[in-house]
Write a structure and sequence with these properties.
Two copies of one chain form a homodimer. By secondary structure, the first copy, chain A, is of the alpha/beta class. The first copy, chain A, is built from 15 helices and 19 strands.
C-alpha cells in the first residue's frame, strides 16, 4: 500500500484560516507575541464565521483536513466556496485566475477600472487575442464553463466605493493585481511615472486599510516582481524577500543573523520602484495591524493557456506584445510569427526569472488555499526558470524555424534601459515547492509551440501585423526620444 | 609654524562642482563608467557656467581652493553666491537654513505651500514661538541681518509651476524639506496616510524629474530620517544607508560583499514608509540619470537656537510641541516648563539618535559646500548622540528642577505605537566627521537650558498652556481611538 503524501496544508489549523473571527477575541496590538503563546497553549478562544454553532473553540484544535468547511482539491485543502476578491480582474492574470478559482467552487468577485485597456489603446495597440467586454467575458464563462463571476467596474483609488465593497463582500482572500505593470510606460515621462507610482502605491495602501477595518482576517496576496531585487553584481543569492535565519552579516570582528530583515532592493524602473514602495506598505501594515500577506515576486510571465482559457476561444485572456505592455517571450513569438526580427536590447545576456501563465495560476491557488497566519508577511519568489534574453530568442527561433517553417531573425538595439547586460543571477525559489507543494506543469518549449499555433492563426497574425511598429523599442530610460540604433541584425 | 588642516573639500575638483556644464559634453547614459575613466585620464572636457571665458577644460584640473568662484568659509570652500533652493522654506529647518545660507552669501530661494501651518492649526495647535507671515519673516531677515531671501508660495505637487521655477532659478543645490514630517499624523487614518505618502513621494519624484530636465548638475539634498531603519533587534550596526564594502554576507559555504547595496529598512510609521519610498526614488534616479544626491537620515532634532535665529526674536523658527507635530526633547521641556508631566510612551527605553538644530545647520552647509559627484547617491546619518526617552526625561527633569526651580513629573502611557521598547541601537555616523569635517558645537544640556529660558518667558509659557491638552498622546498605531491608559506617574 502506497501512502499518499499529505496535502501541504492538511495540518494547518484555524489559526491560519480567514474564516475565524479573531476580532473581539484577540487583541493583537496589546498582547503581541502573547497571542501566539496563548494560542500555542490552548488558552485562546475564537469563533468561526462559517460554523457559528460550534461557539468558542481553540483555533489550534481544528485542522483543515478535519474541518467540513474545507474540501480537498488538487491544490490542497480549500475553503468551500471561498470568497476571493480579485482587484484588476480584467487583466492578463486576473481573468484566468477568476476562471480557475470559480471552477474550483470559489465565490469570485472582482473589480477593474478598465485602465489597462485604455492605456494599451492609447498607444494604438490592443490585445492580439480578441477579448470582449467584461460583461461578455462573464457571460462566456457562464455559457462555456457554467461559472459565476461577480464584477464591478470600480477604481481602487475611489476609496469610499472600494471600502464599501470590501465591507459588503467580506473577502476571505484579496488578490492585489490592480497595478500598472509596465516598466517602459513608467519611464516615458514624469506624468506616467507619477501615474504609475500613485496608482500602485496608493491602491495598495487602500487595500491594507480596507482589510484592517473591514476584513482583518483576510489573506492578502500582493503581486510584486522579481525586478524589485535588481541583479546584484556580486552574484550573492537573491533570497525570497527576507533574509533567512542562516544568512549572516560579518562586519569588523562581529557577526549577526540578518534573518527576517528585508533584503536589499534595486528596482530597475519607476514601475519597479512602485512595487518596492508597495512592499514596504504591506510589510509594515502586517506589522502594525497583524494583517497577513504573501508578497509575490513574480518572474516574467509568458504563455496563453490554462485549462479554463482554452475551453473556448471566447475565454481568451488579454495578450499584449507591444514594447510597453507586452513581455519578452510573448513578443518574440509574435515577432517571429509575422516574420519581423526579435528585438533584443543591448547584449541580450540579461538573465531574468520566468514562469508560464499556467504555473502562475497553480501557485496562486495554492497560496490562496494556504493563507499566512495573523501578522505574517512572507515573500515568495514565483519563478520556475532562469533564461537570458538571448537564450529565449534562440529557443523561439529554433522552434519557429524547424517546426513552423518560419525565418527567424534577431535585431539587437542599443539598450534603452539602465541595466547590467552581463551579470550573475542566483535566485532562490524553493518556497513554492517546499511550503505549497508546487510542481511546474509547464514545459518552456511546449508553451512556445502552443503560442506559435495560436499566433499563426490568420486573424491573430493579422492583428499582430497591424501593430508591428509598436513592437520596436522606443522608450529610453534617459527620457530622451528618437529612434534607437540597431547594433546588429542576424539569423540565429 | 602650525600647519592648518586643509578644508574637507579643498582638493575637490570641477568634477563635483554644480557650476560645471556636463550636458552636451558628457553622455553619461551612453558611456557609463567610461565617463569616469575619461575624466580620470584628462580626456573629458567641460565648460564652466560661471566662467565662460575659460572655454573647454579638464574638470579634474581645477580644485576648489584654486578656483576664484569659491570662497573659504567655516564650513569649507563654498561657491560664491551659490544658488540654493529650499523646498519647504517656512519649516522648522527650512527657515534657519535659509538664514544661515543667506548669511554666507548664498542666493537663497525657496517655496512653501503653507501646509505645515495649516496642519498644525487644524488640530488647534500653533508654533509656541510666535512667527509672522513669510513676507514678514523675510522683511525681518532683511531688517535685522541684511539678508535677501527669495520666496514663492508654491506647492511642489503643482508640477508645471515647480518645473518652471527650477528652470528659471537654475539651482546649484536643491534641499528637499517639503515633506509632511509627522509619524502620528500619518497613522491617524487612511486619509492622512494617503496624504503623507502622496505629498512626500510624488513631491520627491517631481524634484528628481525637474533636476533631470532643468538642472542636471544640481546637488540634491533629500531629508530622510533615522526612522527608515527601525531598530534591528539583533543589534547589528545601523550603517549609513548602504552597506560598506567590508560588510560581508555569509550564506552556506560562500561569502559576498554587500558593499554598495541598500541596507534593510524597517520604517516605523507610514510617514517613515514615505521616507523609505522617497529613498528608492532618489537612489534610482541617480542611477538612471546620473543625478547626485545626499540622502540625509536625520535623527530627532531639538532646540531653537542658531546664531541667526537668536539675532532677533522676530527671526524665530517655528517650534511645535504637540503630540503630532512636536518632537520629544522640545515637548519634554515645554511640559516641564508649564508644570505638566513629561509623557513617555511605554517603557521609555526606546533609543533614538538626536541632533541639535544648530548642528543640523552646520551639517547641511557642509554638505551643500561639498556636493556629490555625478551619479553619486550617498547616505549620511545625521545624528550626534543616542539617548533613550527615559534619559532625556531625566536630563530635562534634572535641569528643570535644579536650575529653574521647577517640579518635573513623568507620566508613562501605554505605548500607542508599534515599536520595540527594549532594543539595542548601534548607529554608525562617522561620515559627517570624516568626509565633511563636522564637529558638533552643541551641548545637550546647554540646549535644554536655553530652551527652558525661552519657554519660561511669560508669553511663550502662556502659549504652551493654551495647548497643553494637545501634548498628551492620543494617536494609536492601531487606528482605534479613545484615551490611552496611564501606566505610572512619578517624580524622577
Amino acid at each position: 500500500m502506497v501512502e499518499e503524501t499529505p496535502q501541504h496544508n492538511a495540518k494547518k489549523t484555524c489559526w491560519n484560516c480567514p474564516a475565524v473571527k479573531f476580532k473581539g477575541h484577540v487583541d493583537f496590538r496589546a498582547c503581541g507575541q502573547e497571542a501566539f503563546r496563548k494560542a500555542a497553549s490552548g488558552q485562546l478562544v475564537v469563533e468561526c464565521k462559517r460554523r457559528e454553532e460550534i461557539g468558542y473553540f481553540d483555533p489550534m484544535s481544528i485542522t483543515y483536513d478535519s474541518c467540513p468547511e474545507f474540501q480537498k482539491t488538487d491544490y490542497g485543502y480549500l475553503l468551500r466556496g471561498m470568497t476571493v476578491m480579485i482587484l484588476g480582474i480584467d487583466g492578463y492574470l486576473g481573468w484566468p485566475l477568476a476562471l480557475k478559482l470559480a471552477s474550483l467552487g470559489c465565490k469570485v468577485t472582482g473589480i477593474d477600472n478598465m485602465l489597462r485597456r485604455h492605456l494599451v489603446s492609447e498607444i494604438g495597440a490592443q490585445s492580439i487575442l480578441p477579448i470582449g467586454s467584461v460583461k461578455k467575458r462573464i457571460q462566456n464563462a457562464r455559457d462555456h464553463l457554467g461559472l459565476d463571476i461577480d464584477f464591478r467596474e470600480m477604481d481602487l483609488l475611489n476609496r469610499d466605493e472600494f471600502f464599501e465593497y470590501v465591507k459588503e463582500v467580506q473577502p476571505e482572500s484579496i488578490i492585489q493585481y490592480a497595478e500598472i505593470p509596465s516598466a517602459p510606460y513608467s519611464m516615458v515621462d514624469v506624468d506616467r511615472a507619477v501615474k504609475t507610482i500613485n496608482n500602485n502605491v496608493i491602491g495598495t495602501l487602500h487595500v491594507m486599510f480596507a482589510a484592517r477595518d473591514y476584513a482583518p482576517e483576510t489573506s492578502i496576496i500582493k503581486l510584486g516582481t522579481m525586478g524589485e531585487y535588481g541583479s546584484p553584481l556580486t552574484g550573492r543569492p537573491i533570497f525570497e524577500g527576507l533574509f533567512p535565519g542562516d544568512a549572516i552579516l560579518q562586519y569588523g570582528d562581529d557577526e549577526w543573523s540578518l534573518g527576517g530583515e528585508l533584503t536589499p532592493r534595486d528596482p530597475v524602473s519607476f514601475y519597479h520602484v512602485s512595487k518596492v514602495q508597495g512592499t514596504f506598505i504591506v510589510y509594515e501594515s502586517c506589522k502594525y495591524w497583524w494583517l497577513r500577506s504573501y508578497d509575490v515576486m513574480q518572474g516574467v510571465v509568458y504563455g496563453l493557456q490554462t485549462p479554463e482559457l482554452i475551453a473556448d476561444k471566447s475565454l481568451n485572456t488579454r495578450f499584449d506584445i507591444d514594447e510597453k505592455w507586452g513581455t519578452v517571450v510573448n513578443r518574440f513569438v509574435a515577432q517571429t510569427a509575422i516574420g519581423t526580427p526579435m528585438t533584443i536590447y543591448g547584449k541580450g545576456n540579461q538573465i531574468r526569472g520566468y514562469i508560464s501563465i499556467n504555473d502562475v495560476m497553480q501557485c496562486m491557488v495554492r497560496m490562496i488555499a494556504n493563507p499566512p497566519e495573523p501578522g505574517q508577511y512572507e515573500v515568495v519568489n514565483q519563478v520556475t526558470d532562469l533564461y537570458s534574453v538571448r537564450q529565449i530568442a534562440d529557443t523561439v527561433a529554433h522552434i519557429g524555424k524547424h517546426e513552423f517553417g518560419l525565418d527567424p531573425t534577431i535585431q539587437r538595439y542599443e539598450n534603452p534601459r539602465v541595466e547590467a547586460e552581463d551579470h550573475p543571477y542566483e535566485v532562490l525559489h524553493t518556497k513554492l515547492k517546499d511550503q505549497f507543494q508546487f510542481v511546474s506543469e509547464s514545459d518552456f518549449e511546449d508553451e512556445i509551440r502552443y503560442m506559435f499555433k495560436r499566433l499563426l492563426e490568420p486573424d491573430i497574425k493579422a492583428r499582430i501585423e497591424k501593430q508591428q511598429e509598436l513592437l520596436i523599442p522606443r522608450t529610453k530610460w534617459s527620457g530622451t526620444t528618437g529612434p534607437l540604433k540597431v547594433l546588429e541584425t542576424f539569423k540565429p
